[in-house]
Amino acid sequence: MQTHFGLTHFWQQGDAVIHATALILLLLSIASWALILGRVARQLRIGLASERAPEAFWQAPALPAALQAIEAADRSGLYSGMARACARNHQSYDSATCIGAGVSLSESITRALRNHMLAAQANLESGLTFLASVGSTAPFIGLFGTVWGIYHALVALSGSSSVVLDRVAGPVGEALIMTAAGLFVAIPAVLAYNALTRANRLVLAQLDGFAHDLHAYFTTGVRRPAATGPLADAAPAALVRQLA
C-alpha cells in the first residue's frame, strides 16, 4: 500500500493543473533558496567588512593610503564606495562650476553621503520583495492545489454507492501534498526575509555611523586653511542617519 500510494503514483494520476501548480512551487522554492544563499553569503562579506573597513581607514597615515586600505579590507564595496564618493566630492569642490557649486562643503559632502546611502539601501534590499511575495503567495498556491485535489476526490465519488479507497486516496493525497508543498516553500522565505531585514537595518546603522565620521573628517580634517565659512555641524549628517 505504501508503494502503491507513493509520490510517483500521485504524480502519475495528477492532471495538468496539479502538475503546473507543483512546478510553480518547485520553481519558487529553487529561486528563493538561491536568493537566500546568495544574500547570506553577501551578509557574511558585509559583516566582515564592517569589522575591518572603518578601522583600516582610520588607521592609515593619510587619505590616499586610507582609500587603498579600505579598498583592500572591504570586499562588499559599501564602506569603500562611501569613502571614495566623499573623496571625489572633496577634491572637485573648489573647481566645480555647476549649479551645485554654490552650496557649502558640508552640504556637498552630505549630498554625496546621502546618494551613496540610498544606493546602498537599494542594493541591500534587492531580492527581499521577491522573498516577501513568495512567503505570502506560496501557501495560497498550495491551497489551490488542495482545493483541486479535493474536487477530484468528490468527482471520483460521484455515482458510487460505496466509498472505494483507490478512487479517493489519490486526489486526497494530492491535496495534502500540495498543502505541505506550499508551506515548505513559504516558511523558509518568510524566515529569511525577517532575518535579512534585521541584518540590513544593522548594516545601515553601521554605515550611518561611518558616514557621520566621514562627514566630520572631510569638512574639518582635510579642508584647506584658506577656505572660509563655518565648520561642519552635525545637522547635515542627521539627514543621512534618517535613511537608516
- Helical content stands at over 70%
Number of strands: 0
* Tally of discrete structural domains: 1
Q: Note the run of SSEs as H and E.
A: HHHHHHHH
Query: So how many helices?
Result: 8
The proportion of strand residues reads: under 5%
CA-based shape: rod-shaped
Summarize the biggest pleated sheet: none
Give the N-to-C terminal Cα separation: 58 Å
Low-confidence stretches: 223-244
Q: Please state the CA-atom Rg, rounded to the nearest Å.
A: 28 Å
Overall SS class: mainly alpha
On the 0 to 100 scale, the average pLDDT is 79
What does this structure look like?
The structure is a single chain. The protein has 244 residues and is mostly helical. The chain has one domain (17-241). The protein is built from 8 helices and no strands. α2 packs antiparallel against α3 (63-73), α2 runs parallel beside α7 and α6 runs antiparallel to α7. The chain is rod-shaped.
Question: Top keywords for this entry?
Answer:
244 residues, single chain, mainly alpha, rod-shaped
Question: What does the secondary structure layout of this molecule look like, with pairings?
Answer:
Blueprint: H1 7-13, H2 16-58, H3 63-73, H4 78-91, H5 105-124, H6 128-157, H7 165-221, H8 235-241
Helix pairs in contact: 1-7, 2-3, 2-6, 2-7, 3-4, 4-5, 4-7, 5-7, 5-8, 6-7, 7-8
